[in-house]
Every structure is written in C-alpha cells, then in structure tokens.
Amino acid sequence: PEATNSDDTDIDNEGEDWGDVDNEGEDWSTNKPTNAPFPLPPTTLSPTIDLLGRLEDLKGTYYCAVSWDKIDCENAIPCPSGDAKECPKKSMSCFSGTPCKGD
C-alpha cells in the first residue's frame, strides 16, 4: 500500500532513490533498540530550608487568644503544641505565627 500524507493524498515513492538502504527481510513489527542516549531522571537538590527547624521556631509563636487581633503578648499564654486545649478558656484558640516570643 502507498503511504499518505497529512492531507490524506497518496504519496508515490516508486522510483525514489534510497541510496544504499537495504530493508529486505527486516521485521518492522517490533521496536528496535537504538544507541541513542537515555534522558537522565531529574535530580532533586536538598532543600535549602530547614523545615523541621523552622517548625520548632514557630512553636515559640503559638499563643492563646480570643482572636488574632486580640493577642496581648505581655499577658499571652503560650500553647506550644498548637492545641487550644492548652488555653485557659474555651473561648480561646491557639494562634501560630504571633508576634509574641517566648523566653
């Protein structure tokens, strides 16, 4: 059968000069290995941020308050676990990243 191009018109290869190519007896039903280089998998660089250290640093900024804008750092109660159960009143939540700093 003749090949077709992208606009479905027949391509006539009869009489084409293919040089010294001899495909007689080739099995085209399976892919053949090549000497082409394989792409290398992407490399992952070590993170430049110490996430565990950063999380430890954040623990010192967890404080109890009724709302973020009501945080009173001078009298704030720390909740280093991040759990509101550490707060003295049920109406309080434990906020992270506050401007308060523990000693």
Main sheet record: 2 strands, antiparallel
Provide the helix percentage. Answer: under 10%
Number of strands: 4
- Total helices: the number is 1
Q: Short description, anyone?
A:
It is built from 1 helix and 4 strands; from the N terminus they run E-E-H-E-E.
Describe this structure in words.
- By secondary structure, the chain is largely without helices or strands.
- Helices cover 9% and strands 10% of the residues.
- The protein is built from 1 helix and 4 strands.
- It has one helix spanning 51-59; strands spanning 3-4, 10-11, 63-65, 93-95.
- The strands form 2 sheets. Strands 1-2 form a two-stranded antiparallel ribbon. The chain has a two-stranded antiparallel ribbon with strand order 3-4.
- A hairpin with a 5-residue loop joins β1 and β2 (10-11).
- The radius of gyration is 35 Å and the shape is rod-shaped.
- 7% of the residues are buried.
- The model has no long low-confidence stretch (mean pLDDT 77).
